[in-house]
Amino acid sequence: MRFIDGRYFLTSTQGGNIQMRSATTVEGLKTAQAKVLFDDTTAGRNVDFWAPEFWFLDGTWYIYYAVAGNQDGDTHHLHVLRGGTDPNDPSAGPYTYVNSLIPSNFDQWAVDGSVLQIDNQRYLIFSGLESSSPWTQCTYIVRMTSQTSITGDAVQISCPNLSWEIIGTPVQEGPEAITINGVTHIVYSASHCSTDDYALGMLTLTNDADPMVAASWTKSPNPLFTRNDAAGVYGPGHHFMFQKGDNFYFAYHGKAAPGLGCGNSRTTRVQPFSISGSNPVFPAAVATGVPVAEPVA
């Protein structure tokens, strides 16, 4: 989700395609017409489109996403689309398929690709399968050579090992980078999305350290954003952070009752978050019936 030139844009998937909604208010996104930006019948990349992110890089829109093929949900890999050049309208397109993004050492299940830029170097960060027994997802990074290509090996920079990261099964996914006052963080989702304990955690890059070295990253010991039983919010996570003016907001999905799993019972919510020094500070999750003020500049 992004705020661009007076409008909000939100991507979503319905299994077989990538869609985008746009409105002048967050509330308006609820009823906005969804526009299909891309679908694909190509064998090997035509099932379960997941987690599309849209980025305006060097004058062109790109969408990074994961998709599986051959009716096998365990075959997800990362891919990239190229779109239009209107900086104020990521929905204009058209979007065309460009490339798969498979590191030389990691031709296996990978999802949730996102872009991290440090100085003039871009990196692709993603969640990848470390082990299938038990199912374990870790956070990886690989260098980008252009908006649509990567080079070299992916490096595992963090794996779930804290009690709040391993509920259901050990998972780190949905990594999103943010740099605040010169300090770079990766905020990620932890534990399995089917559980009520899905939550947000954070890695912090040591200043001037190489992001391709695992030891350069420090994991926060406690989650940043968690379930709120008193408000009836369960399994909140898989966020995207954005700005409107000087204010910070995040979109995420959550569930309104316990035990609802990872399916269509999840709804998209938006709340503000704040900055303290060089760190993001996330609020308590609020119930769906509690009004949240529209973002302000």
UniProtKB/TrEMBL annotation:
* Source organism (scientific name): Dendrothele bispora (strain CBS 962.96)
The entry's family comment says: Belongs to the glycosyl hydrolase 43 family.
Q: Which GO terms fall under biological process for this protein? A: carbohydrate metabolic process
Signal peptide segment: none
Q: Which keywords accompany this UniProt record?
A: Glycosidase, Hydrolase, Signal
Q: Which InterPro entries match?
A: Glyco_hydro_43, Glyco_hydro_beta-prop_sf
Has keyword Signal? yes
Q: What is this protein called?
A: Arabinanase/levansucrase/invertase
Under the GO molecular function aspect, what terms does this record hold? hydrolase activity, hydrolyzing O-glycosyl compounds
User: Mind telling me which SUPFAM superfamilies this protein's record contains?
Assistant: Arabinanase/levansucrase/invertase (SSF75005)
